[in-house]
Amino acid sequence: MRLASRFILIVSGILSVTLALNAYYFIHSQNQLLEQQLNERGRVLGHLIALISPEAMLSFDFLTLNEYAREVSRQRDVVYGVIVNAKGTPLTSFFNRQDPRVLDALQALDLDLETAPLTPPKTAQLVTRLSSSLYDLLPMEFPISHGDRPLGQLKVGISREQLHSQTQRQLLIQSSIYGLIILFLCSAIFWVFRYNVMGPVNRLMAASRNVGLGELEEVAVTSSDELGSLAETFNAMIHAIREEQAKLHYQANHDALTSLPNRMMAIDRLEHELHQARRHNELLAVIFIDLDNFKVVNDTMGHAAGDELLAMLGARLLSRLRDVDTLARLGGDEFLVLLPRIQNIDEVKQIATRLLEATSERMMLYSREVIVHCSIGIALYPDDGISAEELMANADNAMYQAKTPGHLPICFFTQEMNVQVRQRLQLEQDLHLAVERGELELYFQPIVQAGHCRPIGAEVLLRWQHPQNGTINPATFIPLAEATGLIIPIGDWVLQQATSLLRHWLDLGLAPGTLAINISRLQLQERLISVIQDLVTEHRIPANMLELEMTENILLDDHAKISETLDQLQAMGLKLSLDDFGTGYSSLSYLRRFSFDALKIDRSFIQGLPQDQDGCALIGAIVVMAHRLGLRVVAEGVETIEQRDFLQQQGCDYLQGYLLARPMTVDAYQATLPSQVCPRLSKDKEM
Fold first, then answer.
1. Is the dihedral of CA 567, 572, 575, 578 positive or negative?
2. Which domain CATH number covers 350?
3. Which of 31, 83, 376, 536 is most buried when burial is the number of CB atoms within 10 A of its CB?
4. Which SMART domains match (predicted)?
């Protein structure tokens, strides 16, 4: 039941009860007044008859008494009139035989006035019965006396029927009047309540329903009472919801760190700009920007510094754009730029160059000077795609192409890149099956002791013989394996094969020396210790026959965890070497922080020897420093006799390269184990 209906029912009930009580009081008062009037009329009549009857009673004039009784009964509302003597014996009487109550009393007393006249006793019985409460009569008695001498009584029975009729008539009239009053008052109250109360309430209810539908409309405040206060409170709530929605919308569409639009908003704007570009036949450019060495800043200076760098860089990039352009942060160190309404490709190149210059400028970060570099990929509408997904994917492909060695930091998308992406995806699928199909194979490149030309072991290399594409370059599939996580099962397979071969060669009585195995960052983060421990135990080989090589980028992660893992590996007896020394970041700090057994000088430092004087000085310094730190030095990429001789003169401990031996298959390497590879070096000397 609605509020208005309940209110009207309550008001109607209150009015009805109030008016009913009022009507009852009025009718009751009216009834008492009428009964008083009836009594008064009866007393007047009775006193009159009692006053004139003594003479007739003294003279025993019954005819006169009968006439008096008849005269009394003729009066309106009088049912009977009886004159009795002092002893109570009726002397004369008159009964209204048309009155149903008289007929009923006669029938009850088994009296028939047609056949037998009333005797005084029967008359007394009839009067007694009619005076009872059965017939609702008003019995009245008036004494008849002569002086002080009582002669008898006049008994009169007056009907209340007329009284009741008037009362019912008054009740009907009052009920009708009060009903009309109630109807009028309820109607008036209903319309006033509906307009002044239910109107604002209904508006509030409608506004509340609209809130559920997402329509935040305020309601009009039409009064200063409680309903007005309720409307003001509702409007305040709507205002607060709007502010909260605006805040949530901003948070959902903006990056919390840089306050730039996020991926969601960038896609939305890209869809909008694409619609405008189609409509006006305009060019549109999508630019992907990725920082090349952001992780270094994060790992060396902390995440807080990295966050500040991103915020500073976002502001700097934004300052290089036009007002109509959009700069968004996609996440991590990736940014997206939308260039609508461009005139030609040259304009895109100019803006991309400004963005590249912005990232390359020096920045002060925590009182330190920092320089970051980026790779930029560009896709154009409509040449490189007509949908947001296609343009973003192609710009992303171009950006990754810019990261590859030999490419400029700004790269425009070409259709050939999609071919490369498809080839990469196919290669990734094939790599999943390479281990199961037996397509992976171990190669061994011997490492010899400088000066004595005696092999002390070999570096384990991985080769992939693809059934359709032939030999896949490790520089191609190793990064792919690391990016997809396949390096974990592949690395486990390499360790399993290497330890199994060591056991096999030892069983043959051969001396394979130490096998150096490359370890990736993902392997070091996983269960490497337990894997090696299980393999060493299973194949019963000395742990010191294994040497783990790792590049400096492995050490960029949690230093405490990495240091703990390396200490555990060394405690097992394994040897550790730092590979590609000098090409990574903060190499000297890693030599102090982590415990290594050897370091391997990258081939890029060997290529110019001995003609490169700076390179010669650098090699000499590295060897001296390593020896003072108790580290063995291995030189990679030795390809000429001059390089070999120079490295020996500088005190390099071990050599590795094509001059000494090329990577060999398992069988070829096994064949060299009983002998040395130095005859080749002697032959070179003779040449």
1. negative
2. 3.30.70.270
3. 83
4. EAL (SM00052), GGDEF (SM00267), HAMP (SM00304)
Count of the separate structural domains present in the chain:
4
Of residues 480 and 410, more confidence is placed in 410
Q: Is pLDDT above 90 for 624?
A: yes
Report the alpha-carbon distance of residue 2 to residue 18 in Å, rounded: 24
Domain for residue 194, yes or no?
A: no
Give the separation between CA 285 and CA 384, rounded to whole angstroms: 9
How high is the mean pLDDT of the chain? Answer: 83
Q: From CA 609, how far away is CA 52, in angstroms rounded? A: 170
Of 345, 378, 413, which marks where a domain is finished? Answer: 413
* Enclosing H/E stretch for 294: helix 294-301
Interatomic CA distance for residues 515 and 440, integer angstroms: 18
Examine residue 13 and state whether it is found in any structural domain, yes or no.
no
397 shares its domain with 313: yes
What pLDDT is attached to residue 686? 34
> Residue 444: how many CB atoms within 10 A of its CB?
25
**Do 355 and 303 contact (CB within 8 A), yes or no?**
no
C-alpha to C-alpha distance for 63 and 47, rounded to whole angstroms: 20
Dist CA 273 CA 256 (whole Å): 24
Task: Judge whether 393 and 380 are in contact, CB under 8 Å.
Answer: no
**Domain extent at residue 244:** 216-252
Average pLDDT for 162-171: 75
CA–CA distance, 115 with 112 (Å, rounded to integer): 6
pLDDT at res. 184 = 85
Please check whether residue 392 is in contact with residue 405, taking contact to mean a CB–CB distance below 8 angstroms: no
The percent of residues in the chain predicted with pLDDT above 90, rounded, is 33
Residues 376 and 486 in one domain: no
Residue at 541 is within a domain: yes
Q: What is the pLDDT of residue 662?
A: 93
If asked whether residues 240 and 285 sit together in one domain, one would say no
Q: At 660, phi and psi to the nearest 5?
A: -90, -45
Q: Give the CA-trace dihedral at 212, 215, 216, 220, to 10 degrees.
A: -110
Query: For residue 672, with 0-12 CB atoms within 10 Å meaning exposed, 13-18 middle and 19 or more buried, which class applies?
Result: middle
CA distance 522 to 85: 138
Q: Are residues 258 and 376 in the same domain?
A: yes
Q: Cβ(546)–Cβ(574) under 8 Å?
A: yes
Residue corresponding to tokens 């191609």: 476
Q: Give the DSSP H or E segment for 7.
A: helix 3-58
| 374 and 335 inside one domain | yes
Mean local confidence (pLDDT), 233-256:
85
